[in-house]
Structures are given as C-alpha cells and as structure tokens.
Amino acid sequence: MLSRFRTALRPARTFTTSARALDAHAPKPPALYGPGAKEGTIPTDEDQATGLERFELIGKAKGIDVFDMSPLNVDRMGTMKDPILVPSLHSTRIVGSTGFPVDSNDTIWLTLDIRKNNGIGRCPESGVVYKLDYQGPPLDEAHH
Q1: What pLDDT is attached to residue 10?
Q2: Which helix (DSSP H) or strand (DSSP E) does residue 46 occupy?
Q3: pTM of the model
Q4: Quick check: helix, strand or coil at residue 84?
C-alpha cells in the first residue's frame, strides 16, 4: 500500500534546470550593465551603475543631457490661442509655473492631463496657459 502511495506522488519525468548557460550560447549583456570592479579595486560609479543611472552617466560623459532637464522656454505670455507647449511622452505631466516674465511669482504646480481639458492648464496667479504636447503612443481608453 505504501509503495503505491509513493509511486502516485513521484513525477512521471524529472526535469533539471541550470541557471548557467554556456558562454557560446549566452546572449551578450545589454550596454546598460557596467563591467563591475576589477578584483582588488573599489568600483567607480561608471563601473557599478546599471539601468537608467548608467544611461545618464554615459550621456553626461558624451556631453548629452539625456533627460532634458532644462526649463521650459517661457518667452511670451501663454494664452488659450497660443499656449506654452510642454512636450511629454506620458499622458500626464506636472509643470511648475513661475509666471511671465519668468520668476514673477512663486512656483505654482499644475497637473496637465491629456484626458482632462485637452491637456491645458492655466496658472491661477499669472494666467499663463500651458498645453501638454503629447508625443507618446496612442492612448487606449480601456487602460489608464
């Protein structure tokens, strides 16, 4: 009876897996992984950074601002007919308005959402109008 019970619990076929792949068949690591530190040394930021941090460090080394952190060019008073365009890959973006001329008031934070008011927002203190210039993939109304 006991042997029948053990046979029922035993898998029909055993599988083995290995996390290690042969070097000839392993895919090359993405460029966003650092080489790591050489043995006996302390790693630098460039050695150990990965992902977006490494992307930013590589860009800085080449003199490129990969995240475009420069402020918006507010060279005019944005109006409903001619708003200040705010480029974005996301459907929502937070904008800090300092009025016109620049720094004429404290920073007022506005949320521009392409699904609300067509992405338009007006600073309540200065009246400057901003519009989200959505440049991302087409929006699917079923997802948010």
Answers
A1: 53
A2: helix 45-48
A3: 0.59
A4: strand
